[in-house]
Amino acid sequence: MRRTGTDRRVPLGCWPTPVEPAPRLARALGLGADDLWIKRDDLTGLGGGGNKVRKLEWTCGQALAEGATVLVTTGAAQSNHARLTAAAGARLGVDVVLVLAGTPQSEATGNLALDGLLGATVVWAGDIPGPELVSKASELAEQVRRRGGVPALIPFGGSSVSGARGYAECGRELRTQLPELRTVVTAVGSGGTMAGLVAELGAERVLGVDCGAVRDPARTVSRFAAGVSGQPCPPEDLRLRRDQVGDGYSRLTGPVMDALLLAARTEGLLLDPVYTGRALAGLAAAVRDGGIVAGERTVLLHSGGLPGLFGHPAALKQAEAALHGERS
Ligand SMILES: *Cc1c(COP(=O)(O)O)cnc(C)c1O
């Protein structure tokens, strides 16, 4: 039986994810002890957890409805989305092909090592820009089809109107868990996470911190948010900070390393150097410039990504320096 068309969801995670207060981190940032809460979307359950699980419930649901036997997706070598697509494929009993930017790595660390454990096939696409990575994925999907399989292309970062629906659901959880929520802060990569939150909570209650993964994050987020909510979402209405990108996607910055150390040492909370560290660095900057104020309830979305720390040589070097007391 082949069903097509409408959006479907396949269960992959553990819901709702918890929220917990972060009083020591709040105080260190200059907020009141009860002002800052963490939404633990690092605890989504599947494959080490992280925000991609919510989006995969929708994109994989659609793929299965279309009879898919192979999931094909794209990403960087340390892509959390690639790792979680591999985990979703294992859970759902379908093969996974990961088309990764770059060349074969001499050492498989972090997410890449987990891709191997999870049984995904990795195809290295070379050092090519995003659009070419997508063409390469389409080519591989075509090869699957010629061999009699049914491929489904899962979009970059799992972000599409369909994938973003998973984050509208997260917004609904937050409404129930913290009704007085003023601002939820999230890292922005491929945009679906912020888009779903905006669709549910409104643009004024979501602060996105760009990580430099896409060229025009505001347009990307607004397009997905409008698709989910059915309402226009002008890019200029979004609260989007672009001051934490630094030298570019996945490059470690001083404020991000400070954020990693601060979260770890005040709350025992482990962030990653690409996304959640930027989100906290952006939150800290927003407290400094008045975008976030004491006395209002702020939520930091912990979107996962810890495996990426173990595949990030610069961050590991800083952690080692801290171990030797050279960084505090
Ligand atoms: C992908 C990712 C994000 C960004 O989410 P998008 O929906 O791609 O914008 C944030 N945090 C982590 C840990 C991620 O892996």
Automatic annotation (TrEMBL):
Residues 12-304 form the Tryptophan synthase beta chain-like PALP domain. Pfam families: PALP (PF00291). Keywords: Pyridoxal phosphate. It comes from the Bacteria. Its cofactor is pyridoxal 5'-phosphate. The keyword Cell division does not apply. Belongs to the ACC deaminase/D-cysteine desulfhydrase family. This is Pyridoxal-phosphate dependent enzyme. It comes from Streptomyces polygonati.
